[in-house]
Amino acid sequence: MLDPQSTQKIPSSTMDKCRACGAKDPYLFLEYGEHSPAQMLVRPENMDEPQPSFPLNAQACLECGLIAVADQIPEDFFKHYLYMPSGAATMHNHFDEFSGVIAERAGTQELIVDVGSNDGLLLAACNARGCTTLGFDPAENIAAIAAERGVETYIDYFHPASAKDVLGKYGPAKVITATNTFNHIGDLHNFMEAVCILLTDDGTFIVEVPWAKEMLERAEFDNMYHEHVSEFSVLSMVKLAEAFGLEVSDVTFLKGIHGGSIRVFMTRKSAAFPIGENVAKMLAEEAAVGMLDKATYDARKAEFDATGEELRRIFAELKSQGKKIAGYGASARGNTTITYYGIGAEHLDFLVDKNPLKQGLYSPNTRIPIKPVEAIEQEKPDVLFMLAWNFFDEIYAQQEAFRARGGQFLVPYPKPRLVS
Known about the structure:
The chain is built from 13 helices and 17 strands. By secondary structure, the protein is α/β, with parallel strands linked by helices. The strands form three sheets. A seven-stranded mixed sheet has the order 6-5-4-7-8-11-10, sandwiched between helices. It has two domains: about 210 residues, Vaccinia Virus protein VP39 (Rossmann fold), CATH 3.40.50; about 120 residues, NAD(P)-binding Rossmann-like Domain (Rossmann fold, 3-Layer(aba) Sandwich). About 50% of the residues are buried.
């Protein structure tokens, strides 16, 4: 709570303009209610203490297709962070492939900067190719893990002042990357200013984020939470780049990453990079889905709510049969799902997660205990509710013993289904 005498402005729970293109009054189509920050897991000794919570409201820009929530998280929130991409084998393979793309653009001599470098998984893959790298991340605990991989991290938020400091100490960057980081940024224009400070004249800024078109088309609105403030369309990226003398020169669709993602290449207009044919193709796909129409969002919100109704029906039926149910993945998007749909400890006996930083803690809002993945064999639940559904294929393959004894997977999106 803020001091009543403080002159500090309380952040609004809705936005009056689009953070990408600046268009006024984005359309409020989904009010999730009050949520604690999705990565603010609860320690056992704090179970009886209230958590801070904020309204979560999804708004769509009908000028560029950005889907966003207001930025209400205090700036120092990410100083100690709990998500690490290295927990999923899928991300190891993905970053190995991505490092090849980066190395082709940067070579071995010119600097690669990864913003939101986390535990260094991507840059370690770049280092293995002989590249020159620097991580950029405010989370000191995660930067220490990156150091064990041989990845150097500049510990700070990425903004114009820190970009100037890195420019002075390390020189300009031929490639700047942001993988599943750009969607965490409240002030995109401040971030883009920093990119333009640090990027070489012929450099490339590469962003990987979930594609708003995929989320909208399949009504997968679990991916909105306070720390994850934007879902990008290609059009929103095009308009944002234009404001800074950049252009989207290419884009790639990444089907198996975070439910469907895009890899966007931004280059300076003055560098005159050729424009890849995928840019026009994916802009046309967004227009066909109706990303600039209110009616599209209303229809998909109704589908999202219908998913919740069906999940509650399935849970009631399973519990009436005496089934033990565990949630797989103490993920941020999973916390949005169970909080919005009202799925709590009466439905889920426990959660499991590979990340040791989360084990022994409790989920925000719902206070469900989080255990190691080994608890599946120790406690033998009958059903695994796939909160980390975006990694379902990987998890399904790993859970051979669970499947062998007749265990079922409850997958929530795009439509709830039980998989035996």
